[in-house]
Amino acid sequence: MIELERISRRYESTVAVDDVTLSIAEGEFCVLIGSSGAGKSTVLKMINRLVPPSSGRIRIDGADTARLAVEALRRRMGYVIQSIGLFPHWTVARNIGTVPELLGWPRARRRERAAELLDLFKLPPGEFLDRYPHQLSIGQQQRIGIARALAADPAILLMDEPFGALDPITRETLQAEIAQIRRASRKTVVFVTHDMDEALRLGSRIAVMDNGRLVQVDAPLAIVAAPANDFVRELIGRDDLGLKLLSLDRVASRLRRGETAPGDAIGDTLTLRQALSRMIADGKDRLPVADAEGRALGAIHLADLLRR
Amino acid sequence: MMAKALRDPLLWASLALLALVLLMPDAKPAFAALFPALERPMFELDSFLDLTLWHLLLVGASSGAAVLLGVAAGIFVTRPSGAEFRVLLDTVVTIGQTFPPVAVLAVAVPVIGFGFDPAFIALLLYGLLPIVEGTIAGLEAVPAAVREAARGTGMGQLACLLKVELPLAAPVIIAGVRTSVIINIGTATVASTVGAWSLGLPIIIGLNAANLAYILEGALPLALLAVVVDLAFGRVLSSLQGWRRA
Amino acid sequence: MLRNRVLLLLAIAGFAGALGLPFLTHAANRLVSGMPIGLMAILEERPVWAGALLPPVALLLVAPFLSPRTAVHALVGLAAASLLLLLPLVAGIAAGRLAAAAPPMARTSLGGGFWCAGLAASLALADALSRLRASPAAAALCTAVVVVALGVLLRSGALNGLAVVREYAARQDVLATAVIRHVGLVVGALVPSVLLGVLLGVRAAQRRGFGAALFLNVVQTVPSIALFGLLLAPLSGLAHLFPRLGELGIGGVGVVPAGIALALYALLPIARGAAEGLGNVSPAALEAGRGLGMSERQLLWRIAMPLALPVMLAGLRVATIQAVGLAAVAALIGAGGLGAIMFQGLFADALDLVLLGVVPIVLLALIVDALFRIGIARTQRVPR
Asked: Does the N terminus or the C terminus of chain A have fewer Cβ atoms within 10 A?
């Protein structure tokens, strides 16, 4: 449970963060979104005290972070940054084991944990444990960066535009992997991005910031359906609004059970937006729906997509 | 404007040097007081002005020759026709730099004799190294794109070298010349041990006769001379970089 | 078709020098100038030596026209290395025969022809090694083998006829002491310099100001002998005021002012190397490390220093080689070391004595250079 109470950050001539109050519940995936310079990275860095607040208080599980030993605080949280920052002179295994090493874990256990995390990201440990960062692609490097953040199994994960430096395909893959990891564990994630699609895809709660202030904090559906002001509307993208709404719901919730339709089936876990895309590509106004094993579930019609 | 000129370190150092060199004999009472035990507290074998001028001549002549030879060698080695010799030059430079400058002098004397000549040869040889290194580094730092553009506008090799490459490489080359000259000022001092006239003479004689006053009288103007020359080079370098600050 | 102009140039220059300049000089005593003795004259006396020298020389003259294959370069390297051993051997045996027939005061020295040929052969070896793309360690090994072989040659007594070897024989103890003193001066000055220099560099990299930079720059500019001279006065003044210090040897001349000056000169390259090396460490890695909970000290020692090591070592290399050279000048203020032998030869106009001082200095510097190059290559953890 992270509580930000009226925190501000002032520099000589500017106010980067202005009186922000936010509560992040345990297990929540909170996305901080806004344009560049909105203060979202600064808020994130105040949570692990890389940047000290000029005023206000931050509490984690009730304890005031200003009173805690700063290194111990950071070792309890995972931290992933856009520029990745792997240590070039350490192997993958040692990079992942950074915090365990700081915490004094025995060597064998550190290596085991590194192998475990490589498995999680579908990178064969035998191949990757002893490689060096410069031998990895940038997508692989960021996976290692995330693995490094997860190594000591922290309850809180801080991510500062982690996928910003990646190409769109790798970005999507990693977003899926993060979503999956989060579903499997009950970590609290605070995630900074400027990409609304990413925010809608990953977040359980979205906090929109503009010029250092919180503008709207809501579930994704509420943000899209009821944007608080023009800024939020701009962020969502006026032209895209309908499509974004469609991306928030899945085929399974609108399918007509028992019905049939001709052609290749579409999976029930896909979003309505993907269903629309298929319909247009195939030139059809209805599609058959199947589950993960390929068993027929029913059909979905174009008209169903228009329902609210 | 006037105030800025007055605070100029180069101006002050030069004035101090001039004063020291011209007025040293007048400081005799001060030295006599500092070193009461010495019979001869002031170096009087030759005027300090004379010594300084000889020192400057030795360094200037050898450095001038070193610049001509060194820059030519550096240019040659960075041309396509001379690239083959690059490694050879690098090896010679590396080995040369492990030779202390004094050693070059020490080897030159028995071969050539005493006096100005061996000092000149030794300073020339040793002074070549930083200049060659600087020339190569400077020319190689010129972006290939710039050279390509120059040739593309129809400039011949020589024109490209003179109008584009050398001017851009000049700061690094001059930095190399600066290093070379400063080292040479020091080596010329030791040349006094073999009969070359320089500001090192009082120091060497003072060391032989355990005369601390002589040593100081030689060391002070020498140190100032080196500082003045270094500042002067710094001034030249920063005026060359003017276009960067525009 | 000419494939290797460098080798051809070296081969011709070496050949011409060896034949055109005197190979040896023979003087009846120290006061008289030596009589030149050409290589051809030596070979005429013992044609078998010509037979030994001919194959490597011929190879070096022919190789520039052969296609540049690994085998060719390796053969050239071998030929050059063998010349580096044969030339001293020929010189030594010829000198020995001359010495046997002459009065004890006579001395036979190595002439310009020998040095010319020797230099050409060394450079040819270096060229062959670079064309073979040898690593710094491999090149150092080759050089070490040649040097060791030369040492064996020396030990065997084959070179005893040469004046420089005679000087060595006469002064073995002095030389050994001088080497120890010289190395001691360098190491003694570098230890405090490294500690202080790295500290200054770390502070500069953390942007806590590099105020010492101006002072150090001035120190670098001042000629060494002037700095020695400038230190002598206050130090001897101190010794006057506190006689106890004088007993400890902190008087005017000698090791202490030399050591202080050497340490001062070494500070700038070391501090600069440390500052540059630390400044080049990836800021992303530092931010990530900090965010994960590393303390500043852990960041410095576990992340920044290892990554900065190659550049720091490069700075230390410059400082050390410079110190080896400056320690030679320190002999003028009574610090001893190899410079003392060198200057002794200089004042006595005895080139062989000068060489006895200079050759070990150059060897020392070359060893230091090779060791550092290997060290820098080894600590290069981030590929360039």
From this structure: C
* Total of domains in chain C: 2
Show the tokens assigned to C169. 């024989």
C31 with C9, same domain: the answer is yes
Q: With beta carbons less than 8 A apart as the criterion, state whether C63 and C7 touch.
A: yes
C178 and C125 in one domain?
no
Residue with token string 């040593």: B215
Using 50, 70 and 90 to split pLDDT, how confident is the model at B118? confident
> Are C295 and A87 a contacting pair at CB < 8 A?
no
Q: Are A247 and A268 in contact (CB under 8 A)?
A: no
C384 in a domain, yes or no?
no
Question: Which CATH number do you get for residue C229?
Answer: 1.10.3720.10
pLDDT for residue C384: 45
- Tokens for C13, please give them: 């220059």
Rounded to an integer, the average pLDDT of C3-22 is 89
Statement to judge: residues C80 and C105 lie in one domain: yes
- Say if pTM beats, i.e. exceeds, 0.90: no
Domain hosting residue C340, numbered range: 172-379
When CB atoms are compared, the residue of C6, C342, C349 closest to B103 is: C342
ipTM above 0.85, yes or no: no
Parallel, antiparallel, or unpaired for β C35-37 and C24-27? antiparallel
pLDDT tens digits for range C106-158: 888 888 889 899 999 999 998 899 888 888 888 889 988 999 999 898 888 88
- Rounded to 5 degrees, φ, ψ at A299 are -145, 165
* Statement to judge: residues C129 and C199 lie in one domain: no
Q: Do C223 and B109 touch (CB under 8 A)?
A: no
Report DSSP letters for A41-104, one per residue.
Answer: HHHHHHHTTSS--SEEEEEETTEEGGGS-HHHHHHTEEEEETT----TTS-HHHHHTHHHHHHT
Residues 6+ apart with CB under 8 A from A135: none
C149 plus C37 within the same structural domain: yes
Q: Based on the domain organization, do C96 and C65 belong to the same domain?
A: yes
Whether C245 is in a domain gets the answer yes
**What part of C 50-109 touches B (C-beta under 8 Å)?**
none
For residue A70, pLDDT beyond 70: yes
pLDDT in tens, C243-262: 766 666 665 567 888 888 89
pLDDT tens figures, C15-51: 998 888 888 888 887 777 778 888 888 888 888 888 8
Contact C200, C214 (CB under 8 A): no
Cβ pair A88:C290 closer than 8 A: no
How far is it, in rounded angstroms, from Cα B52 to Cα B58?
Answer: 10
Last residue of a domain, one of C122, C144, C162: C162
Neighbours of B91 (CB within 10 A): 17
Q: For residue range C309-361, list pLDDT tens digits in order.
A: 988 998 899 899 989 988 998 888 888 889 999 988 888 878 888 889 998 99
Using CB atoms and an 8 Å cut-off, which of residues 203-222 of chain C contact chain B?
218, 220-222
